[in-house]
Amino acid sequence: MFEFITDEEKRGQVGIGTLIVFIAMVLVAAIAAGVLINTAGFLQSKSQETGQQSSKQVSDRVQEVATVGKVTGSPEKVSIVNVTVTQAPGAGEIDVHNATVTWIGPSGTYQLIANSTGTFDKLGSGLQGKEFGYQPVKDSDGSSNVLNDPDDRLNLVFDVDTFANDLTEGSEVTIKINTMAGATTSIRFTVPESLGNKEAVEL
Q1: What is the CATH number of the domain that holds 80?
Q2: Which domain holds residue 105?
Q3: pLDDT, tens digit, 9 for 90 and up, residues 80-125
Q4: Phi/psi zone of residue 170: left (φ > 0), alpha (ψ -120 to 50 degrees), beta?
Q5: Residue 82 near residue 156, CB atoms below 8 Å
Q6: Do 77 and 192 contact (CB within 8 A), yes or no?
Q7: 77: which of 29, 39, 57, 121 is 20 to 30 A away, CA to CA?
Q8: Which contiguous run of DSSP H or E holds residue 146?
């Protein structure tokens, strides 16, 4: 015995099938949209983090204010170099104690770190081999080793004969100061050709 399906029943079956396909498509689209939103959020977060790190590597650096050498001995030579630094424009906090310094001079290249005891009051006092010291010059909030204000001034002190040969007349030196953020400042100077009868010279 044959069962006849009316046109209305056929249309109903087709409609149900279409509805199932439509619901499946909506579910797939919703899942795909959720994945895309999560991926976009992750990529945005990573790009912001990368951008901030890149910005710090460019801006969080020190800027040279003045460089002075102390003259000693006979014949005269520069035995201590005193570099006054401040924040570069747009820089954030800079902890000088965590900075590293590359000294490139006539007698070689040396990697220097901050004196482990921190600041010191007397030039050339307490520095060991391959160390530099620092002295606050202008510091409004007592953060002696941190440059956190455009008005802050800090002296970086290099007792040259603790890690290299003293600087004679005409010696050329490059000092590269690398902050914890990865930003580098290069300071270049040449010792004057005449040091006679001088206690200090501008470099």
Answers
A1: 2.60.40
A2: 60-202
A3: 999 999 998 888 889 988 899 999 999 999 999 988 665 554 444 5
A4: left
A5: yes
A6: no
A7: 121
A8: strand 146-147
Last residue of a domain, one of 10, 44, 59: 59
* Integer CA distances (angstroms), 116 to 85, 150, 174, 183, in order: 20, 26, 23, 22
Task: Report which DSSP code applies to 3.
Answer: -
As a whole number of Å, the end-to-end CA separation of the chain is 113
Look at strands 108-114 and 131-138 and give their pairing. parallel
- Three-state SS at 52: helix
Give CA–CA dist 138/135, Å, rounded. Answer: 9
Residues 6+ apart with CB under 8 A from 170: 190, 191, 193
Of 28, 59, 90, which closes a domain? 59
**Model pLDDT for residues 82-94, shown as the tens digit of each residue:** 999 999 888 888 9
Count, residues in the chain: 203
